[in-house]
Amino acid sequence: MLKGTRWLQQTLEKMAGKLSVSGSTKLRNKMKPTKIQIVDGIYEILTSTIANNRFFEARARGFRSEIEFENYVKSKKLKILKGGQFLFRERDAAGFHRLVYVTITFSDKANYISLYKKISELPIITDLFFIQLDDLDNWTTCQIPTSRRKGIVQTTQIPCPSFEIFKFDSSKFISSDITEIQNLFPVKTSSTICSRKTNFYNYLVNYPEEDIAEIFANRYFLDVLLRNHKKGMIDFDFIIENKQGFIAVETKEKDAGGTGNSKYFGWDSRRLSWYLYLKQKGSDWLYISKIFYKISLCKRI
Prior knowledge:
By secondary structure, the protein is of the alpha+beta class. It has one domain. Helices cover 32% and strands 25% of the residues. The chain has helices at 4-19, 35-49, 53-75, 113-119, 178-182, 209-225, 269-281; strands spanning 79-82, 85-88, 99-105, 125-133, 140-149, 152-160, 163-169, 172-176, 232-235, 238-242, 245-250, 286-290. α2 (35-49) packs parallel to α6 (209-225). The protein starts with a helix and ends in an 11-residue tail after the last strand.
């Protein structure tokens, strides 16, 4: 192995090249991952990319609330769509943000056309992509850098999602590939490998494999395929569609602060200005809602 970030950069570049053929990952030997392998993959990706221990544990708890909330909404016969990621590109010449919107799901892209039409109307959105996950039977494996030992990068095998990438163009989806997304973001000069941490993610094996596979695929996209690229990110967990339009949903699993009748929940301040902007620009179609979904079994993992 090569030492330092040069090896990491070369590994990620080679991986990206193999994954971008015709916008899919269907050329490798297939191996359906088990639930344990998917969950271990989530851990391996996040332990090597999240430096803060508190955030690492909070991220583990957050996955549970997302799965529980989606299942609750479906039980009420409401139409719910997977939320997407707004990826921040470099500012333009005038100093304004430019964003790329990406959804990663097993769901049919046809269900997202109306939503994508609305999001495309936002003036700061430059590109919209949809990553359609293939059946788990068609997934493969790959190696990612997860630690260093005496200055040498060590790798771990994880599942590799099979998918097709589509770009939204006016009112339809057209075939694309991972390279088109990667080329929208500048390459980092180095990528840090964070220290290994306690695994708080094993509880996820109790949930359906498709639910945890979508969680894995989203982290794989952000922290493996785009690991070597500079980008900011803010997302919606879900979108609920009704007769009035779309409701953007953010779920959190948190214990209330305060005591007695003065209990409260916190909210990231950086999200407030972002949600306010969306509400002002799209008030005729996008209704912003902050939902704290309190899980009855919520406890420290």
